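Ligand: zinc ion. Inputs:
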Amino acid sequence: MKVNKMELLNNCPICKRNSFKTILSLKDYFLTNDVFNISECQYCNFKITNPRPSEKELSKYYESDEYLSHSNNSRGVINRVYKLVRFYTLYSKAKFIKLFVSKGKLLDIGCGTGEFLNYMKKKKFEVTGIEPNNKARLKAIEKYTLEVFDETELDQLQKASFDIITLWHVLEHVYDLNQRIIQIKNLLKSNGILIIAVPNCDSFDAKHYKNYWAAYDVPRHLYHFNTSTLIQLLDTNGFSYVKTKPMLFDSFYVSILSEKNKTGKSNFLKGFYYGLISDISALFSAKNFSSHVYLFRLNNS
Ligand SMILES: [Zn+2]
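Predicted complex:
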C-alpha cells in the first residue's frame, strides 16, 4: 500500500526527550506487507512505531472485516475453543474489577461489539461504550441495546462521572497518547479506577519471535509497552499503580499468529507450545507475561 503521509515523532510520548534508536524493522503481516520500524527511546526505553502513517492514512490499515477481531462466526473446533476462552476472559475481567469496585458507572473505551459491556451490565454496572468503528458500534447498540458513542464524542461525556474506565488492548492503537490519558483523567471521579490491558514486549514470546511477534502488529499498534513504560506513562499523568495480572491465553493466540508470520503457514501445535513456554517462564521468573492487565487509581488532585 502506498502511504503518502508519514509522521515522525521526535519526542518520546513518555519522557518527552528526543533520542530514538531504530531497533526493529518489520512487516504488516496482517494486511499490507508494508514495512515499518520500531524505535526505542534512549532515556526511558519506550518503544514506538516510528515513523507512522498520519492519522488519516492509518485508517486504511484497518480496512479488513477480520480486524473486527473477534467476530462471531461459529465454525470448527478452534472457534468453539475460542468462545470458551472468551467467556472465561469475560468472567475473569469482571472478577478482577470486583476486587476493587462492586458497582457504579463504567466506561469501556474501544468496546468493539459490546460483549464486555453487556456482561458488566448484567453484573449491575451502569455501562457506556466508545467505539470508533461504525459497524462494531452499531452492532453493540443493536444486539445488546447499549449506549455506545463514536470516539469524537468522548469529550461530550460528563466530566468526573465514571467510577471505572477500561481499555482492553486499545491504548496501543490510540493516536495521541497523552491527550487520551488527559481525557480519561477528566472523565474519572476522584480516586476512580483505570484498567489497561496491553501486550508486553518484554515477554518470552516477544523475545522468541522478534520481528515476527504478532503483537507488534504494525502500524496498527503505535506503542509497544512493557510494565515499566506503562507505569511511567500513567505516573506522569497523575495515576498510581495498584496491581497487575497476566492474561494467560494471550500467549497462545499471539504465538500461533507469530508462528504463521515466521513460516508463512499455520502451525497450531508449535504456536501452542511456545505460548505454553511463555506462560511457564513468566510464572517462574520475571513475571513478564505476553499480555498484562494493569489497574491504576487516579490520585486526588
Ligand atoms: Zn522516553
